[in-house]
Amino acid sequence: MAKTLRTSGNYTVKAGAGYNSGSGTNTIQLDARYVRIPGDLTVEGTTTTIDSQTLSIEDQFIEVNRNNSTAGTEDSGIFFNQGSSNNQILYYDADQSEFVLGSTTHAATVSAITNITAGNLRLAEPSQSDHAATKNYVDVTAGVGFSLKVAGDDSTQITVETANTLQFTGGSNINTAGSEPDTITISLDNDLTNITSITSDASNGDLTLVTNGTGDVVINDTLTFSAAASTPAASTVTKLYNKTAGGGGTGLYFINSNISSGTEGELISKKKATALAIALG
Q1: How many domains does the chain have?
Q2: Domain hosting residue 105, numbered range
Q3: Which label site among 139, 213, 265, 269 has the fewest CB atoms less than 10 Å from its CB?
Q4: Averaged over 195-220, what is the pLDDT?
Q5: Within its chain, how far is the Cα of 247 from the centroid?
């Protein structure tokens, strides 16, 4: 049988000493399949527990830390109970003025988060400038450090990331200058063309041309010797160099420690050789 209790003013139901007395311990229990409150509901207790499988809230916004009256000094957020594992939490860190996602050993009754292990947040690839960037976007598109896309003969692009090595396969290596830890190695298997100068970057260093196996170093054009600053030191190899012409009439000298005890000699010209032959009869 339905009943309606109507009053012309406020109506109070109190069990024992009640809540406001500070000493009340009694309970009022509403035992029904459904309890409907068409008006506003205000709960002034310090703990509110909602035991339901599905919580449906019509409000557009949810306010937490409602009674906070201080400016930017209290942490607040949402705890996710994980049973025997650490709780997961999404909260606003007031001290750092930032939002944090991660796990904590705290219970939801804590007033400040002092123990947090940052967690991962999975995002979609950003489609506009104010979207959060994924790691893939930063690594590949934004390019933290060195990032390079190379197109092959078939127009297929490959991406070279930071600390990777970019290598063109071929014969002997030519190493380009680069800042550590990034090194670009280029290996060529074709003839070098349009090269106007080859210079050693080592102070007083040699520039060595080495053939493969029994091959020769072939020069198909004029070979020019610039004047040597001084006579080079003799060694067990033959060195050719240019100086002011002497008795040989060529100015092209050689030196080898195994020849004439390392004394330099000048190659003799045809004219000088002819004159010398006539003079010697």
Answers
A1: 2
A2: 76-118
A3: 213
A4: 86
A5: 67
